[in-house]
Amino acid sequence: MDEILIDGSHGEGGGQILRAALSLSGLLLRPVCVEKIRAGRKNPGLQQQHLTCVRAAGVVTEAGVSGDHFSSDRISFSPKTITGGQYEFDVSLERGSAGSVGLVLQALVPILAFAGQSSSARVHGGTHVAWSPPYHYFDKVLLRTLSMMGLQTRSELNTWGFYPLGGGDVAVDIDPVDGLKGLRLIERGSLKNVTGVSAVTNLPASVAQRQRLRASKRLSAEGIKPEIEEIDAQAKGKGSFMFLLAEYENCCCGFSTLGSKGKPAEQVADEVVDQLMRHHKSHCALDGNLADQLVIYASIAEGETSYTTSRISEHLITNLWVISQFLSINYRVEGEATGPGTIEIRGVGLKRKSG
């Protein structure tokens, strides 16, 4: 079977191209070569999180892999079969990285969904780090939405992990599917409730309290009464985090931000509330991150998936381009980049191979 060549510098040119290519290669058992990996970044090539993605995807598909070394700008990946089972991966194994657990799972979950048996994946690293989906988003928004497409999972946050020390621990159980069904989320319905967490580690409890109080005050002024839990996260190093989950009649959306040295607790809360309110006032169903993360699943589902989103991200457009290198799918994006819009994707109806 001919190897598919993917230009890793295309579009936004980040690690998302690599992760999408690995997922699709593993799902379809099509060999792929990704070159110019993260070419435009200040630290181009494979960083530890990307390297873990390559090796983890290689393990679960018994793939032949070349180029899997730190800073590599080209990898070849030749999967043989999807093998379910119990797996454990550590982003921090070689370089003490707080690389994202969520991004590693982003590459693995679609592959393991089509394994011949149930799987468990335990990943160590950063659970709440910048530029990646935090655990709470992965669990409360992505996995919950995927259940509507027929994928049943269970996840647990055993240990939090913040930048730069990491040390987090997440476990996910994935039941195999015969196939996924398309999803229609054009209308979100009315807002049912807003819940969330305000967390700190090795910082005064008053920081979490200030974040909660600020968010509650601002949302109350909008007529929304949130339920926000304060958490002492008990992780390595220092950190703070806030996550808000907006549950509508037909879908759910998530919004989060991290604290940093010199950033007041009130600013942390403001950033999350601003995200939530921008989305809420758009009247669209899905937040931009979920819209981006669903496209791979939509491309392999049976029938059409359609949804509105408050933000058409560069990641979404780039993901659709990567998918088109592997599959002949019909899709339509209505709207401008960074603005609201509608996504329609007719999936190929991928079925799990028996035997």
TrEMBL record:
Alphabetical list of HAMAP family matching this protein: RTC
Entry-linked PANTHER family: RNA 3' TERMINAL PHOSPHATE CYCLASE, RNA 3'-TERMINAL PHOSPHATE CYCLASE
Protein task: Catalyzes the conversion of 3'-phosphate to a 2',3'-cyclic phosphodiester at the end of RNA. The mechanism of action of the enzyme occurs in 3 steps: (A) adenylation of the enzyme by ATP; (B) transfer of adenylate to an RNA-N3'P to produce RNA-N3'PP5'A; (C) and attack of the adjacent 2'-hydroxyl on the 3'-phosphorus in the diester linkage to produce the cyclic end product. The biological role of this enzyme is unknown but it is likely to function in some aspects of cellular RNA processing.
Gene transcribed to yield this protein: rtcA
Protein name: RNA 3'-terminal phosphate cyclase
Keyword Cytoplasm carried by entry: yes
EC number: 6.5.1.4
GO cellular component terms, A-Z: cytoplasm
Binding positions for ATP per the UniProt entry: Q106
Lineage: Bacteria, Bacteria division TA06
